[in-house]
Structure formats: C-alpha cells, structure tokens
Amino acid sequence: MPRILIISPNWIGDAVMAQPLLQRLRAMHPGRPIDVLAPPPVAPVWRQMREVDDVIQTTFRHGALQLRERWRLARELKRRGYAEAYVLPNTLKYALIPWLAGIARRIGYKGESRYGLINVMHHDDVPPRPMVPFYAALANAPEAPLAPAPRPALQVTPEQAAAACVKAGLAAGRPLVVFAPGAEFGSAKRWPPGHFAALAQAIVAHVPLAQVALLGSPKDRAVCDEIVAALQDTAAAPAVSNVAGQTSLAEAVALIGHSAAVVSNDSGLLHVASSLDRPVVAIYGPTDPDHAPPFSTVAAALSLRLDCSPCRQRECPLGHHDCMRKLDAALVWHTLQPMLPAAVPA
After folding, report:
1. Strand 176-180 relative to strand 211-214: parallel, antiparallel, unpaired?
2. Contact 12, 27 (CB under 8 A)
3. Which of 253, 270, 181 is nearest to 222 (CA)?
4. Which residue, 77, 98, 148, 211, has fewest beta-carbon neighbours within 10 Å?
5. In terms of pTM, does the model score above 0.70?
6. Is pLDDT at 345 greater than 60 in this prediction?
7. In the 8-state DSSP scheme, what is residue 205?
C-alpha cells in the first residue's frame, strides 16, 4: 500500500502543532502507513504520536545544502514507495527531497521559489493563521474551505512516566509541577529566573508535598541554575530539582505527561504540555499568544500586551524587557493556583 511521508519542521513546538495534520490524514486514509522524516532533536516527539508508523532521522547540518546527502536519502525514500509527501518546513532544501525521490504529490506552502518542487501549493492567509490550523489545512485541497482543526495529542505510558521519574530523581507519588524556563529562540522569551523562584515558593507553600522540576535542554541549564540559586536557604529549595540537560527529550515528555501542571515560556515544551492535556500557564513577552497559544483543556496564556510587543526579537530592542519583567510572579500564581486543586490534592 502506498505510504505517506511527512517532512518535519525543525522545532519541537512546530512538530507538536503539526500533529492534527496526521490525525486528518489517518482519518482520510485509514490503511496507509504514515512515516516522518525528522532531525534527531525532534524525532522523539514524533515517536509519541500514535499516527506515526516510522520515524526516519536526517543527518543534515543546519543551513547546509548537502545536495549529495539529500540525493542519497531521496533514493532510499524512493524504495519505500511513497505516494505523497507533506513538506512542512518552508524551505527549498527540504522540498528538494521528495522531488528527487520521484514522489508524485508534493504538498506544502508557497515559499523560497518552490514552484515545481511543490506541485500542490497552499497559500497562507494574511494575517497568518495560528500554527495548528495552518498545518492541518494541508490535508485538504488548497481551495477547500477552512475547517476547525483537531487538538494535538501526544501519549505517555505509565511505564515511561515511572522510568523518567527515577531518572530525574523525583518521587512518583508526590505532586509534580514542571517549569520550562528556557527558550531556544532567545533571551527575550525567558521569564526572569527570580520570578520563577518566587512562583516555586508560592507553590510549595500552598502544596507542601509538591515537587518542582526545571526542564530544558543543556542550553537551559544555566538559567535553571539561577532559579535554584535564588531559592537558596528558602523552604522551597529542597522541593526544586534542576534536571535541565539531564533528561532526554523523550524523558522530558514523560515527566510533563506525569505532571499536575506546567508553567512555561513560549517554547517547544509548552506545546508538548498542551498536547498531553496538562494544565498550563503559558508566559508570552516578545511573541504573539494568538499565533501559537496553549490548547490544553485547562490553560491560560499570559501577556501584558504592551505597546512594544510582540516585537518578535531575540533580545529586547529597548533594553528594559518590561514585557516579561513586569509580568510578576503574583500574577502567574493567581492564574496557576486555581488549576492546582483539580490536579493536586492540597
């Protein structure tokens, strides 16, 4: 039976928000295998999706054309027998792969002179749609009317959650609140470490058995260390664990799936939490909460919506970072506290 190929975005959050596309494709073609071509940092997320039959990891360097490697990969894909490919990255380099592989239908959005490489061309609205319906629309014809998109959904097994707790040194029987203080995009998207520390103190005071896990990549380790340092000599300090960079992405996903609530910057882990339907408080500064909002059943998107935001800059161009600094811990705690009793026994 002909297979379907999904060419993954390079970001964790985008991969999560693309999952409703797979839900639609599975409903439209229930017997056809769906494979995903993904970079190694994103591949673990796709493996948590029930619609995915196989994940093929790429070996491309960021920004490099590597035409010989793309040609070699295309020959491998041709042998697997794909009838259509959905090219989610909006670049010429990734559109080359299904064209070289001779895949008949190559679906994607207009971008980077891809005419011919993409032969089922979609066009985005102005202003652009939120990311979930943006990707989900690719399942239908370009001229089809827009339809509500399903919610992204990852899955975590109890065995995965238990193993991740052991790896992170967390007690599986105690309530867990996850903080995601990092942001790959840049420092402007990070809520100040002191605010995270103040929030941790409020959580532990309200739920004495609570434990707080700081999750992220090795790049986020330093900012998480700042949170731990700010908690030194406080009653909350023993309850806070910095495991950024010490868990794999798959283990971080499992910990989020096990958590009672998640507080996150606008990052990939925010969208992982939403897709696992965890109660979420999402903190936005330089980015637009309407573009990639949380979609959990219980969720809040916090933004001061200052005149200077969303600036979409990696660092605050005005130097004051007011969009994050003035969004204080008391406001986030006021939003988070009602979420905790439903998920965490006080």
Report:
1. parallel
2. no
3. 181
4. 148
5. yes
6. no
7. H
For residue 118, the Cα-to-chain-centroid distance in whole angstroms is 26
Answer yes or no: are the C-beta atoms of 16 and 133 closer than 8 Å: no
SS3 228: helix
Domains with residue ranges and CATH for the chain: 3-139 (3.40.50.2000), 158-343 (3.40.50.2000)
Q: Across the chain, how many H-helices and E-strands are there?
A: 14, 12
d(CA 330, CA 337): 10
Q: Which two tokens stand for residue 8?
A: 């993954």
Rama region for 186: left / alpha / beta (φ>0; ψ in -120 to 50; rest): left
Helix axes 329-336, 193-206, angle to 10 degrees: 40
Torsion of CA 246, 247, 252, 256, to 10 degrees: -60
Where would I find the beta strands (DSSP E) of 259-334? 261-265, 280-283, 299-302
- The stretch 214-241 carries a mean pLDDT of 96
What is the rounded distance in angstroms from the CA atom of residue 156 to the CA atom of residue 160?
Answer: 6
